[in-house]
Amino acid sequence: MRVSLSWLKQLVQLTGSVDELAHRLSMAGFEEEEIDDLSARAKGVVLGLVKEREKHPNADKLSVCQVDVGAGEPVQIVCGAKNVKSGLYVPVAMVGAVLPAVNLTIKAGELRGVSSNGMICSLSELGLASESDGIAELNALTAGLPALGEPVAPLLGLDDTILELAITANRPDGLSMVGIAREVAALTGAELTLPDLTLNPVHEPLQTTAESAEAMQAGGLYGITLIEGVNGSLVSPAWVQQRLERAGVNRVNAVVDITNVVMLEQGQPLHAFDADALEQLTGKNVTASSFGLRQAREGEAFVGLDEREYSLDPRAQVVTCHDLPIALAGVMGSKASGVTASTGRIWLESAMFSPASVRTTARSVGLRTDASARFEKGLPREMTLACSIRALELLKQLFPCEAMGLWVCGETSGDADVVLLRQDALHQLLGPLEGDAGSSDLPDEVIEQCLTALGCELEVCDEGWNVIAPPSRRLDLAREIDLIEEVARLVGFDRFGANLPDPLSPGALTPAQQAERRLRTLFCGAGLQEITTLSLVGASDSEPRIAISNPLLAETSHLRTNLWEEHLDVCARNLKASQPGCWIFELGTTYAGIADDVQESRLLSGVICGEQRLERWTTSGKPAPPDYFNARGRLTEVMQALKLDVTDRRLSDDPRLHPGRAATLVLEGRPLGCFGQLHPELAESRVLPEATYLFELDLTRLVDAATRTNRWIPTFKAFPTVPASERDLAMVVNRDVAASELMQSIRKAGKPLLEIVTLIDRFEGEQLGENKASQAFRLRYRHKSETLTDDQVQTVHDKIRQALEKQHRAELRS
Questions:
Q1: How far apart are CA 558 and CA 186, in angstroms?
Q2: Counting beta carbons within 10 angstroms of the beta carbon of residue 718, is it exposed (0 to 12), middle (13 to 18) or buried (19 or more)?
Q3: Nearest Cα to 691, choosing from 637, 649, 639, 631?
Q4: Cα separation of the two ends of the chain
Q5: Using alpha carbons only, how large is the chain's radius of gyration in Å?
Q6: What is the spatial distance between Cα 644 and Cα 464, in angstroms, rounded to a whole number?
Q7: Dist CA 102 CA 119 (whole Å)
Q8: CA dist 569 → 546, 551, 558, 574, 657 (Å)
Q9: Angstrom distance (rounded) from CA 403 to CA 347
Q10: Dihedral through CA 520, CA 523, CA 528, CA 531, nearest 10?
């Protein structure tokens, strides 16, 4: 929002500096983005009179001018403008002047052998809009000219300062000069001088079709006024032009410019239709009941005021006249119905369209206008018709025009909701107010003063105040917390003391949070990279998923039920990008159940796909992806670092995994998750290599096990002071007997002397017999305090062998 300081001073008394005002507005929520001092555009530019004009002796398109700038002797200036002539009052940039609009510093010099000591300026060179390519003819711009040599900045309206403010979505009132003036008055206590508005003008009901009436009432309010006696060829007066230029709005003609001035002043967009043009366009007599509101039809053509042709679809809402679209509701009018130089009658539209419909319409055609930006933030119903009367009053200052009637569809005023502001709630939330004399609660007088300054109506009650917000703020001040925020904002957040818990205890990560962080570190150390995927996915034919109520896209319309599908997609994208491998993991949440009963599960999932190496010379440049045991070993590294003993159990019924190269991971006697090579069919369908391994673990169980006291809290274990004794044991068992089962039996039978058991070899061959396999283990024995003898070791060794023979029908391999 571009705020003209001179216009603002007409609405509220300002006493401080521009920088101070900008700072206070920024602290109150209207962030200052830029301060544009317009006088800088014409610094060093004075009023001059062209006394003589002669043709340049060496150039046909140049003139040599003698210009009187009030300094006694005329200044010689070489000028290239076609419209320069003797007796013309012009803006003259003296030597040393800087023109930021064209990034030019004026210097004395020669042009084609003739000296020139300044420059005669055009309006565009001073940063002003101009319809002429030549120099500015000040005689025609204004009747009252200052003395020669005086600055031209006040004459051209360049004696102003523009504040560029960022307006947040919850403050639509900030998109109007009146709204900013109210804000300044509330912050400074200054007196307001606002234009009088007629909030409930006399009107007649608008009789239209049922479809249009329903659409108009859904938006809120639609008003249309017939005004006769305007003149579309008239140029706006200087004060109107200056207000529009300083706000960054293009000038059109007096009628359109007045509607834009009202929009800038009050925040309510208006639109004027040429009444005669509508009758020519429709071929019918146009009355108030001819206007309607509906959704556009597929492929319906529309030519806007920007002269672009749009092909509409049902997302766009259009204003119609005899069912012909004449405007995109809340966005832009049509070129055919716009005000032109021949306009003598207008239909003035003042409406409140729904923010959602305006936003959808603007997006459907890829447009965003000043009007749509205001409608999208929401406008107060009470201001809609009042602004049409305000525009009529301004038009009457320019034309001998009259309103022939005002027709309205919808409720003209909404119910003013009463909001209870509790005194205790305000003090409890804001805390004490710090001052030189100490801290104390915010006085009731200050609270009432802040709310009154905002235009609120107050009624004292037992608990505090019953508050009715002004029409311009009812969308924003709808709850008690909104009122408390406004009080704190106007008083100053920095003036309230810290309201911290007493006593204040330091925070710390819980063991579960620390365990998750350690998991991330360990997996990264094992060569995997953490990723975060979106929890919203598309619908699935293979499994039910919970749909969200308001999805932006079909691809993000449901809650995910797994992590591995997106992980495989990530791997496929990386391999397509010529990456040799993709090793990833994620700690995420999946969702099951129904919308009314969502069940969340925390998972640790990941994929090891392809190879990741720092060198290739050991394989002569050939790829060497990890095999099953190498990939499974990465997981073992992490589990061992957390002191978790995870065993593998054969898994053959998971459709995602290879039936002969998959395992259920067991922790503390219960399944923790799974690990395995991706099923060949699944790998082929997703264009992934054979060496792709998937793991999925229950994160909650994993963290619970890792944070048990006996594992999480480090305990000291004395270093052994006696030597160990190692023995190898090779047993022939059935091929389907897992090594983990044998190792569990060995540990149980070898207590208390057995220290470590390790699988060192597995062999299958015909000489062992059908369906037989040999598994060899290395066993380390150690006593706590004495050196073991061979007899002591042999006794335990035999006990282990006998246990294997009894429990697993194992035979000692000779």
A1: 47
A2: exposed
A3: 631
A4: 92
A5: 41
A6: 60
A7: 13
A8: 21, 22, 18, 9, 16
A9: 10
A10: -20
Specify the residue for token string 């034309």: 399
Listed in sequence order, the residues at least 6 apart from 666 whose beta carbon sits closer than 8 Å to its beta carbon are 646, 647, 648, 649, 672
Cα gap 78→52, rounded to integer Å: 12
* pLDDT on residue 414: 65
The residue assigned the tokens 């283990």 is 777
Please give the Cα distance from 746 to 155 (Å, whole number).
102
Distance CA 325, CA 162 (A): 38
Run of H or E including 246: helix 238-247
The region that residue 179 occupies, defined by phi over 0 for left and psi between -120 and 50 for alpha, beta otherwise, is: alpha
**Cα–Cα dist 346/363, whole Å:** 29
Residue 653 has a CB neighbour count (10 Å cut-off) of 8
**Minimal CA–CA distance to 181: which of 171, 168, 170, 194?**
194
* Parts of the chain with a pLDDT under 70: 143, 414, 814
Q: For the chain, percent helix, then strand, then coil, each to nearest 5?
A: 30, 30, 40
The SS3 assignment for 221 reads: strand
CA–CA dist 148, 289 (Å, integer): 59
Return the closest-CA partner of residue 446 out of 430, 470, 469. Answer: 430
What residues form DSSP beta bridges with 223? 350, 408
Task: Report the sign of the C-alpha dihedral through residues 208, 211, 214, 219, in that order.
Answer: negative
Distance CA 261, CA 249 (A): 9
